[in-house]
Design brief:
By secondary structure, the protein is an alpha+beta fold. It folds into 3 domains: 1-47, no CATH class; 175-331; 350-506, no CATH class. It is built from 17 helices and 15 strands. The strands form 4 sheets. The protein has a 5-stranded antiparallel beta sheet with strand order 9-8-15-14-11. It has a 4-stranded antiparallel beta sheet with strand order 1-7-6-3. Helix 8 (205-220) packs across helix 11 and helix 12 (270-282) crosses helix 14. The longest helix is centred in the N-terminal third of the chain and has 25 residues, at 147-171. It is flat and about 90 Å long.
């Protein structure tokens, strides 16, 4: 019942998973005195998923394969329809293909029509059709793209690529001999200045062929400065080990027609593929809207969102212009998603340069205890129970009250640490008081300090990712090491394993 208790305490369902919300609703009657009605109402709404939203114009022969109010499972086919297939070129013939719509989630399926649109909503069993209808009419959405929307999106991508393919067909040379001299010149220049990308080099041979063929397809879509782009791709080909010359790369772009294969094979290399696509399209700053639209379509098919696409485009610009300052203008990401990504395009020196130490906290410190006459280095109330047998004291100068999670995104001014630190202060003694005996005055002179816990914070001096690392440093006691926690703010692209090795190699 921990989930229900959390919902009661928070009075909000933000951050709860779908299964957790279902659990709350299933137990709502049992805990009705604790769960307000507005919370259960919100839970019902949060579980609604628009799985089908298909107009009569966009479909033919629409048919439900399951009954209304039937309990279904995620992945189950719930409807079929026919859509018009877009043929390349112009044709009077209309071809249709059958599409299946599968359930995005498990739950109860509510079916209805509104304004010549078939709707299928997956919701909780306690929901109601009338309430769902009103919700749809009001334009309420759960923020997720339903399957029908996704199918429409993919269809648009297909049409975009088909149009581009037609444009490239128009560019096919009538005579290969007319270009032979240019190809030879490109090969000579590329052989002298290869570009080595370790990630591309490590690709399987099949993936390399698809990678370079697809990039050639993109470069051929831009009529201006084709040979400047082809030179870059040839340099990359030679440096990556596939060894295709300019002519082979050119022809490979003309032969591309299987976009499903491109998406499937390049999904694991999407960062590299999209970065190189942006670089090629922007050589000499002549990228056209048509090509950028195709790159955006491919990114969508990879599952990239707008934030990812913006960052990849910035990294490509940084590489193309050889200006790492561009990376400082990358907007703060919504989550720590860039760690150890795109390193093959970001100079390692820049990664290291942007590792900023922002605070050091001592958690364990050894102090000598002087047993000589009239001298006490550390007051007894400053010591903890961890005392060495050699009369040395082990103290904890800092007590941690609050700390952000390692790997968190922070903004300038965010508090990273809250802690208390022991500080020695001079005692205010009234030696002139008659209450003090001579013996008391002698004793007080030997211990004129007191210890007080002082509250401190460490703030982020810049935006970035928080890294913590444990460090040991030489103590004033022979054979002992004091212990510290060092705090760093690093770039969004940094990688903790490498950071750890770098820090230890510094020998701080």
């Amino acid at each position: 019942m921990a989930i229900v208790a959390k919902a009661v305490l928070c009075q909000d369902l933000a951050g709860f998973t779908r299964s957790q919300i279902e659990m709350i609703l299933d137990n709502s009657k049992q805990f009705k005195y604790y769960l307000p009605s507005y919370l259960t109402d919100q839970a019902i709404i949060d579980l609604r998923v628009i799985d089908v939203e298909l107009s009569d114009e966009d479909s033919h022969g629409f048919k439900w394969t399951v009954k209304n109010l039937e309990n279904i499972f995620a992945g189950e086919v719930i409807a079929t329809y026919k859509r018009e297939k877009k043929n390349r070129g112009y044709s009077y013939r209309k071809d249709y293909v059958t599409d299946e719509i599968v359930a995005l989630e498990s739950g109860t399926l509510y079916q209805f029509r509104h304004n010549k649109i078939n709707y299928g909503i997956i919701a909780h069993a306690t929901d109601g059709k009338n309430s769902i209808k009103a919700w749809v009419k009001e334009g309420r959405r759960d923020g997720r793209m339903n399957l029908t929307d996704l199918q429409v999106e993919l269809r648009n991508i297909e049409e975009h690529l088909a149009l581009l393919h037609n444009e490239i067909d128009k560019m096919k040379p009538k005579s290969e001999e007319e270009k032979k001299a240019d190809f030879t010149a490109i090969d000579k220049l590329a052989a002298k200045n290869p570009i080595n990308n370790t990630l591309i080099t490590a690709m399987p041979e099949t993936s390399k062929r698809i990678f370079f063929g697809s990039l050639s397809y993109i470069l051929l879509s831009i009529e201006k400065d084709i040979y400047a782009r082809l030179l870059y791709l040839t340099r990359l080909s030679i440096g990556s080990g596939i060894g295709w010359n300019a002519e082979s790369l050119y022809k490979s772009g003309l032969e591309v027609d299987d976009f499903d294969m491109i998406i499937k094979e390049m999904e694991g290399y999407k960062d590299t593929f999209l970065t190189e696509a942006f670089i090629i399209s922007n050589i000499k700053e002549t990228a056209n809207e048509k090509t950028l639209s195709v790159i955006a379509d491919i990114a969508k098919a990879f599952g990239c969102d707008a934030e990812e696409l913006r960052v990849i485009a910035q990294v490509a610009k940084c590489r193309l212009m050889d200006d790492t300052e561009i990376l400082l203008n990358i907007p703060i990401p919504t989550e720590n998603r860039w760690m150890n990504r795109l390193w093959n395009y970001i100079p390692y020196e820049w990664i290291v340069k942007n590792r900023k130490e922002v605070g050091v906290i001592c958690t364990k410190k050894y102090k000598k205890t002087d047993n000589g006459v009239g001298s006490v280095t550390i007051p007894t109330f400053f010591r903890n129970s961890n005392r060495d047998g050699d009369a040395n004291d082990c103290i904890s100068p800092c007590k941690i009250k609050e700390r952000v999670q390692a790997g968190s995104i922070v903004r300038t001014g965010d508090i990273i640490w809250k802690y208390t630190q022991k500080q020695k202060l001079k005692k205010k003694l009234d030696y002139g008081s008659a209450a003090y005996s001579l013996a008391q005055r002698i004793s007080a002179s030997l211990d004129e300090t007191e210890v007080k816990d002082e509250e401190n914070v460490i703030e982020a001096p810049c935006d970035g990712i928080v890294f913590f690392i444990n460090d040991s440093r030489k103590s004033e006691v022979n054979g002992k090491l004091d212990e510290y926690v060092v705090t760093y703010i690093v770039s969004y692209f940094d990688y903790y394993n490498d950071f750890d090795k770098w820090f230890k190699a510094k020998g701080v």
